[in-house]
Q: What sequence folds into this?
């Protein structure tokens, strides 16, 4: 078997972003992430402080979204969101680019918008994943965003919010890995529903995935590893 349980579990950002999730469901979702020892919980901003409390003492990082899901917030609002998230214990911030400005070709605006959030997070010793929302973009947009994020030393570039018209595709992931420098990692989100899908994107160089079906994926991982040892 070419993987271990920790290697797979620490690829997963357990996603708790659906607007209909109740407080009880958010609480239980955080506890599931601790039980399964995922990389992080990516949770609605209002619940981040409580999430950080639940995760304290574990190796699971509290994370949240910035400018989510459409990216059209002003830069000052994204910075305020980032500052609030950091104050609430966030260690990784998943920010959405301004898709409108990307499509308009206003790259100075796009760069400044991304830079402002990265600067705040990195000054606090925390990390940023930059969400492109590839379903709305052409390859030339994705390539330019990879170049900008490399120059700004983003920690990850990410395919999707999971709330657009499409999610992660293998073609996009290969493109993003090709055009991102080695210090920028790749995160896949949207449509990754089982272990085989996770393993397939891992083979493309993806180091992190957003998943809501974490329990199913990791139960299957454990099952396969037990079966491998038994043969």
A:
């Amino acid at each position: 078997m070419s993987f271990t349980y920790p290697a797979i579990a620490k690829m997963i950002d357990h996603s708790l972003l659906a607007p209909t999730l109740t407080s009880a469901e958010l609480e239980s979702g955080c506890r599931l992430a601790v039980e399964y020892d995922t990389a992080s919980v990516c949770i609605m901003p209002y619940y981040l402080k409580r999430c950080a409390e639940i995760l304290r003492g574990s190796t699971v990082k509290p994370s949240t979204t910035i400018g989510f899901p459409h990216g059209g917030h002003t830069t000052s609002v994204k910075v305020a969101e980032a500052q609030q998230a950091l104050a609430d214990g966030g260690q990784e911030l998943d920010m959405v680019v301004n898709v409108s400005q990307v499509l308009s070709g206003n790259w100075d605006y796009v760069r400044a918008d991304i830079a402002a959030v990265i600067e705040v997070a990195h000054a606090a010793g925390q990390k940023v994943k930059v969400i492109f929302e590839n379903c709305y973009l052409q390859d030339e947009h994705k390539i330019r965003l990879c170049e900008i994020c490399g120059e700004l030393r983003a920690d990850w570039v990410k395919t999707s919010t999971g709330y657009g018209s499409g999610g992660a595709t293998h073609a996009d992931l290969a493109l993003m890995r090709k055009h991102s420098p080695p210090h920028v990692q790749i995160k896949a989100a949207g449509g990754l529903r089982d272990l085989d899908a996770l393993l397939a994107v891992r083979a493309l160089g993806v180091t992190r995935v957003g998943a809501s079906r974490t329990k199913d994926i990791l139960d299957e991982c454990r099952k396969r590893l037990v079966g491998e040892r038994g043969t």
User: Anything to note?
Assistant: The CA atoms of residues 5 and 222 lie 7 Å apart.
